[in-house]
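Batch job 17 of 40 flagged for manual review because the log was empty.
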Amino acid sequence: MSARTIRVAPLTPSAFAAFGTVIDKSAAAPRPMNAGKARRYHDLAQVLVAGDDSHVVIGHVEAEPYALPLHLNLVERHPLGAQAFVPLNAAPFLVVVCPDEGGRPGTPLAFLTAPGQGICYRIGIWHGVLTPLGAAQDFLVIDRGGVGPNLEEHVFDEPWLIVEADTADQRRTVP
């Protein structure tokens, strides 16, 4: 069984718009606070939740590293809440998403965050697991808490192979 290939692309707001929001303070003007001793970058993403007795929760995840090339066997989605991942250092991480095709994941896309970028998946978006590259990394995770099933997993019949982009791919515009 040979793996299908996905090349990693840079994460940009336009390339990721169909799947959620890129969390990037460079896209917002800071507001001074605390008598000018702090800057707040406000409203960088909305974490929407649905369902009775649902609420937004904040967690801390310590994630083990992965290396490329990477076999993608499984994706997941959360039908009752958005999910945001904010790295606690400047190291980039891999973001894998799939369009929904009749309740099943379509062809995956892979993005590499710029240093300091985070992401917020929209409700119901198929996505890969949290994937730091090269070294362990800590993240704040903002998502839904409450009753009701909020996790669906899909195992691909045939894995996808995620590889680094070559120089020619990096020059191409991401759709």
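Reviewer: the log was empty due to a logging misconfiguration, but the result itself is present. The CA atoms of residues 62 and 138 lie 5 Å apart. Unflagging and moving on to job 18.
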